[in-house]
Each structure stands twice: as C-alpha cells, then as structure tokens.
Amino acid sequence: MVGKSSSYSEQGYWDERYRESRNPFEWYMGYEELAPLLREQIPLEAKVMQVGTGTSMMQLHMARAGYTSLQGLDYSAGAVAAMMVAHDDLPGVSYRVADCRDLSDWTPDSFDAIIDKGTLDSALCGPDAAENARRMLSECWRVLTPGGLFLLITYGSPEFRLCHLMQPYLNWQVQIQTLSRKDPSREHSHLNFGRPVDPLNFKAVRQINGEKDCHYVYICRKAQFPHSAGKPIAAPQVDTAHHHQPFQQQSQPDACAT
C-alpha cells in the first residue's frame, strides 16, 4: 500500500487530521463490542493505559463501567485537547500528549494493562516500520507490571504480527484470538469470539491466518519473574532479513497491509 496509509506513522498526519475534525471516532471496534473481552482480561481496579487514543470514547465507557484508573495518550496535541475537554469531569480518567515509542515519563511497572487499537498498525506503516514497532513494544513491556497485559486489537494476521510480538526482549506469553461480527453488514453487531490459540500451535495459527473479515486480538501477558541475568532487558534491533519460521517479517511497503 502507498499513499495516505504510508503517512499513518507520521505525527504530522495525525495533527492535521485532528485539526480538521475532533469529533469522536472509534478505530476498529468500540467498548460496546469489546466489553466482554475487557471484562474477562482487565479487572476494574487495574491501572490501564490506552495508547494512541485519538478521539476514541473507550475511556468514557470504561469509566462508566467501573474502571477507576485510565490513562489515555496520543502524540497529537489536538486529539488530547479534545479528549481533555470532553472528559474533564470523569474521575480516574486522564490524558497526556506522548509518543508510545518513548514512555520515559513513566517508571517500570506503572500499568497493569495497556490497550492498543490500531496504534501498532500505524507504527508499521511507512519507513522504519520494524524499528518503530520495536521501540513501541519494548516501551509498553517496560511500563507493564509483572503479570500485566498488553492487549492488541488489529487487522494484522499472525503472519505479519507475531514476528514483532514474539521477540526475545519481550518477556511475555502470547495468545491469539479472532473477533468476527455475527452480522458483517451491521457496524455494532455482536461478535463471535474465537477460541484462544497458542502461537506455537502452527496448524491452528495457519487456520486462523487465512480467516476473512475478522479482527485479531493478541493477548500478551508479561512474565511474573524478571529477565534472567543473561537476557537483555533493552530491545535489540529487529533483523528484518532473518526471522524465525513459519512467520516472515513483512517487507515494505506492505507492512501496513491489514
């Protein structure tokens, strides 16, 4: 893909987008559709970060559902300003202008859960895709508590996401789940939740890799124990030429393909 999609990783694109419109917009799916998954995976008392919030209403609906500590961040000042105005009276909800490739404002073990709806997908568009993904994922891993959850909702199939999520520097366990609408013609149709799949079950992964008209959820749970002395905490550069089989690193410009 070329053209507009190649700009999704650029801050200027999002600044311009939110200058033109600050109306609520939900990438992929909203709280109504994802609520069963969120309730199953994230306790109400968890400290939750949503990366790349844009003008999503997720924080609003999660607060109303009983979640008590919600941090939204986006590197578009326009999007954050709109959300701060819209949700300034919500207890436990805050917003920050920040780049999820650099979360140095937060110490390690700051959050119990991080939600990403499409931000990694944007990072994988345009130049330096693999490096952008490496920086983002290593920072998200760092600020998660032991046992914490990185919940990725994406159109990216296992073929094009596991090569980023299953790097040695990410000391977490990954499961894959498919989400498909029971009625594809209805935007807010109830979802069919597929059975979680172990990425090492290559046969099952290949089956879901070919599914049409679905989202993928990657449930990444940080290990309860720290890295061993011989395992680096800092993320190494991603080798885009030699990834483990059976999942190949996606080459440019197709890294934005969803």
Automatic annotation (TrEMBL):
**Which InterPro entries is this protein grouped with?**
Lys/N-term_MeTrsfase_sf (IPR051419), Methyltransf_11 (IPR013216), SAM-dependent_MTases_sf (IPR029063)
Can you cite a GO biological process for this protein? methylation
Q: Where is the Methyltransferase type domain?
A: 50-151
Bias (Low complexity) occurs at 246-258
- Kindly state which keywords UniProt assigns to this record, in alphabetical order: Methyltransferase, Transferase
Q: Where is the segment annotated Disordered?
A: 239-258
Q: Which GO terms describe its molecular function?
A: S-adenosylmethionine-dependent methyltransferase activity
- Highest taxon of the lineage: Eukaryota
Which family, according to the similarity comment?
A: Belongs to the methyltransferase superfamily.
Q: Please report the name of this protein according to its UniProt entry.
A: Methyltransferase type 11 domain-containing protein
In the record, what lineage is assigned to the organism producing the protein? Eukaryota, Viridiplantae, Chlorophyta, core chlorophytes, Trebouxiophyceae
